[in-house]
Structure formats: structure tokens, C-alpha cells
Design goal:
- Helices cover about 70% and strands about 0% of the residues.
- It has one domain.
- The relative contact order is 0.06.
- The termini are far apart.
- It is mainly α and about 70 residues long.
């Protein structure tokens, strides 16, 4: 463990339980986040562009599509 992490853990261990839990939750969130699964800024822009088009299938269109898939 590096020095900075050791110092941070020592400081967190001195906090009240509720603050320790909050710090632990932040650390767990950080550890569970996978940068490879995050959207790029280009992907986000493309999603926003497509949403702005408001070209969304109706319930009937979605049902017809999936009915075709049952062939």
C-alpha cells in the first residue's frame, strides 16, 4: 500500500461510523467502476443527437418487430 493511501485510511479510521460508512461507499463505488464500460463523449453526443430526433418506435411497431423475430 502506498503512503498516501495509508494516510487516507488512517484519517478515515478516526472519523465517526457514519462518515466511515460514507467514505467506504465512495471507495467501493470507485473500485467497482470500470472505465472500459463508461460511454465516451462521442457516444454520449450520438445518444443525445438520436434522442433529439424524437424518432422513437411506437408500442405497435416494437410489437410487430418482435413478432417477426418469432418466425
Amino acid at each position: 500500500m502506498n503512503r498516501q493511501l495509508s494516510e487516507a485510511i488512517a484519517r478515515v479510521s478516526e472519523l465517526p461510523d457514519d462518515r466511515q460508512q460514507a467514505a467506504a461507499a465512495l471507495l467501493v463505488d470507485f473500485l467497482e467502476s470500470d472505465p472500459e464500460n463508461e460511454l465516451t463523449s462521442e457516444q454520449i453526443a450520438e445518444i443525445e443527437r438520436r434522442l433529439a430526433e424524437n424518432d422513437i418506435a411506437t408500442d405497435e411497431e416494437v410489437k410487430a418487430f418482435f413478432d417477426q423475430m418469432k418466425l
